[in-house]
Amino acid sequence: MTHVSKTILIVEDDPFIALDAADTIENLGMDCIIAHDCKSALRYIESMSLDAALLDFNLGRESSVAIAKRLEAAGLPYCFISGHDPRQIRAESGLEPAIFTKPANYADIAHKVLQGSA
Questions:
Q1: pLDDT by residue (tens digit) across 74-116?
Q2: Is 16 exposed, middle or buried (0-12, 13-18, 19+ CB in 10 A)?
Q3: Which of 13, 58, 74, 99 is the 20 to 30 A CA-CA neighbour of 21?
Q4: Per CATH, the architecture of 7-115 is what?
Q5: What are phi and psi of 79, to 5 degrees?
Q6: DSSP structure string for 70-88
Q7: Is the peptide bond before 103 cis (omega within 30 degrees of 0)?
């Protein structure tokens, strides 16, 4: 029987946080793709087979709302992981996703998002 690894998209503008998150998730046997901005994240969503996404809300000069809306349209599970107030994120995005506060355990969150318990 072949084991199929899950692929998680991490969208995070801070390279240190992104690499740490990917490392902890990969230690669980999952694959990670890192995007630092909306353009590259949207390109990955269109061109790769993904199982879930973990989104930083504030990507510097842009937010990840466009990414979240694309993920919702594709039926892919995702959440926001941010230092911003969850009410602000919901108000600005018009969405009702799971929101986790930084600092966060990315491996635990990835598991919850994949299980649908986020």
A1: 999 999 999 999 999 999 999 999 999 999 999 999 999 998 8
A2: exposed
A3: 74
A4: 3-Layer(aba) Sandwich (3.40)
A5: -150, 165
A6: HHHHHT--EEEEESS-HHH
A7: yes
Q: CB of 54 within 8 A of CB of 76?
A: no
89-105: b or e for each residue (b if 16 or more CB lie within 10 Å)? beeebeeebbbbeeebe
Q: Where are the domains of the chain?
A: 7-115
Alpha-carbon distance 14 to 10, whole Å? Answer: 11
Residue 42: which of 74, 15, 18 has the closest Cα? 74
**Helix-, strand-, coil-residue percentages of the chain, each rounded to 5:** 40, 20, 35
The number of residues in the chain equals: 118
Residues 6+ apart with CB under 8 A from 92: 63, 65
Its pTM surpasses 0.90: yes
pLDDT value of position 118:
65
Name residues whose C-beta falls within 8 Å of residue 94's C-beta, 6 or more positions apart in sequence. 65
